[in-house]
Amino acid sequence: MGVAGRGRLDCRVVAGRVRVVATSAYPLKIIAPQAAQTGPQAQPGEQAQRALHPAAAYVLTYGGGLVHGDRIRVDVHAGAQVALVLLTQGSTKVYRASASGGVRAVDAAQEAAGQTYQTIEITAGPGALVCVLPDPVTCFAAARYSQRQRVRMGAGASLVLLDWMTSGRMSRGERWRFSKYFSANVVCDAAGRIAVRDAMLLEDGGALEPAAAVDALAYLLLLGPAAAPVAAAFRRAHRAHRIRPHRPDPAAVKWSVSEVAERGLAGVAVRAAAASTAALRAWLVDYLAPLQAAIGDAAWSMFANA
């Protein structure tokens, strides 16, 4: 039996087909449905994307959430020319910390013991595309949660990494009531040199409640040639948004774009905020639609129709 909460996912092309090997230990579960490419024949500009071999996997926990003290770690390898989509099934719920865990820690050991962790380590082989497209994280009142995602990019690899969260169980009147939310994303080149490092820390979430117009936050990172069409669409829309006068729309998604060019990796980082999870999801699906040509109809449907 493996270590509790540990999982491995290996996807590689063997004899022209994707071979997926997944192992996991309770409370973690990894499911890899069929994600073969279907749809109309590629246009000339899509040939590079269609050379990829699609694969998809759901990273789940029994019960649909993380309880206080859970330690989840998933090691992922996407081999050369694999287009791997990592998904979840519904929002990742983080349940409240125990009474002792909710007390502010006085040293590192207490801090580590008083929260829930999730770590994903990804290796993208040469020419691979990895799309990390989970549903958002939803922290319950008094929850303490930390997640870390680290990606090593092979030559010519591409990455679409979505990291997003909601304000909490809004239907229960819980908005920004968690105790701690920490998320870090690190991307390295093939030699292990850091190209992108981004982190967000929110503590004592109740302090955010006055921002009543915001119930969902997202960070989207787009790197490499297979993600270039989506990155270009964001650049065009951002330029148009800055040039044309407009009236503020309270219901609209607020967003910004930053260029990324480091260690031979290029693309954009997008930050977005919205008044509802549904509005932000629809906005993301709209902008990410060009990915369908790379990841295939089946994998795209798993994300877009979640």
TrEMBL record:
Q: Which residues cross the membrane?
A: 216-234
**Similarity section:** Belongs to the UreD family.
Q: Which InterPro entries match?
A: UreD (IPR002669)
Q: Does the keyword rRNA-binding apply?
A: no
Q: Which UniProt keywords apply?
A: Chaperone, Membrane, Transmembrane, Transmembrane helix
Membrane is among the record's keywords:
yes
The taxonomy runs:
Eukaryota, Fungi, Fungi incertae sedis, Zoopagomycota, Kickxellomycotina
* Name recorded for this polypeptide: Urease accessory protein UreD
Annotated GO MF terms: nickel cation binding
Q: Give the originating organism.
A: Coemansia javaensis
